[in-house]
Amino acid sequence: MRLAAIDIGSNAIRLQITRVLKNKKGNLDFKKLEYIRFPLRLGRDTFKTGEISFRSEAKFIKLMQTFRGLIDLYEVDDFYGCATSAMRDAKNGKRILERSYIESGLNIELISGAKEASILNIALKKHLLTDHDYLLIDVGGGSTEVSIVEENTIKDKSSFKLGSVRNMHLKDEKQTWENLRRWIYTNVTPKKHIAVGTGGNIRTLKDFIKGKEDLVSLESLQKASNYINKFNVQERINELGLRQDRADVLPHASDIYLSIMEYANCSQMYIPDIGLKDGIIQMLSDRNM
């Protein structure tokens, strides 16, 4: 069986096509057949002007048509696509998705921050150690989802309008930061949880820490963040080897992750290599197998 996931974020858009087969033991094996990350930054438009520009809309439509071609070529059995913060907040986001459906045939769901967190948690359940309590932190381009997991069950979750692209354009508000702080202080028991960070920015930050362990300390993440902040955007591209669409937003995303860890008194963070697209693939697998 072949499954396809489309994740339309604020900083980039992703397509993943995966083959799922049962092995001899009856367990499912997942093999990635195709993965595309296209740096179409919809959040740049939304968080500046409140709507997606015609130029970005035209690129988006072409990208969806391209994705549809790949989905057809791979003869995908089931598909799910979702759009998050930038498309959700754009005045013309719903209209663009309707036009995209007409021109590409791909039905993309405009999802809430809560549903985004729920889909991500589907993938995380396969990777977390069940004898720990976790604080799941997913920082996107336009929103941050935070979930509390205890005894392998989601106890509480919330979404905040804080994100790497949004904050870079100074669209984060003091009240939103205060709401995040208050939610953490009210719902999270200090020093009880291990933080779990998902998203491309936190994985990039981890790459600047020596060693290959997925469990890293707050101190080491802070040191890596301070090191990156010594360079300007062009130096991060030329000297540190970062992509252009990662080099400018990384400090803003890092600030959100580290602040939440500090609010919650989390001394460590587990950083698995999974994202929203993996949760979609797992969701499709659960409903088909």
Describe the fold and architecture.
The protein has a six-stranded mixed β-sheet with strand order 8-7-6-9-11-10, with helices on both faces. The mean pLDDT is 93. The chain folds into two domains: 2-113 and 278-288, ATPase, nucleotide binding domain (Nucleotidyltransferase, domain 5, 2-Layer Sandwich), CATH 3.30.420; 128-273, Nucleotidyltransferase, domain 5. The N and C termini lie close together (9 Å). The protein is an alpha/beta fold and 289 residues long. It is built from 13 helices and eleven strands. It has helices spanning 42-49, 54-73, 85-89, 93-104, 113-124, 164-168, 174-187, 200-206, 218-229, 233-238, 244-247, 250-263, 276-288; strands at 2-8, 13-22, 28-38, 78-83, 108-110, 134-139, 144-150, 153-160, 194-198, 215-217, 268-270. The longest helix is centred in the first third of the chain and has 20 residues, at 54-73.
In total, how many beta strands?
11
Helix content: 40-55%
Kindly report the average pLDDT value.
Answer: 93
Low-confidence runs: none
Overall tally of domains:
2
Order of helices and strands: EEEHHEHHEHEEEHHEHEHHHHEH
SS summary, helix count? 13
Structure, briefly:
The protein is α/β, with parallel strands linked by helices. About 45% of the residues lie in helices and about 25% in strands. The chain has 13 helices and eleven strands.
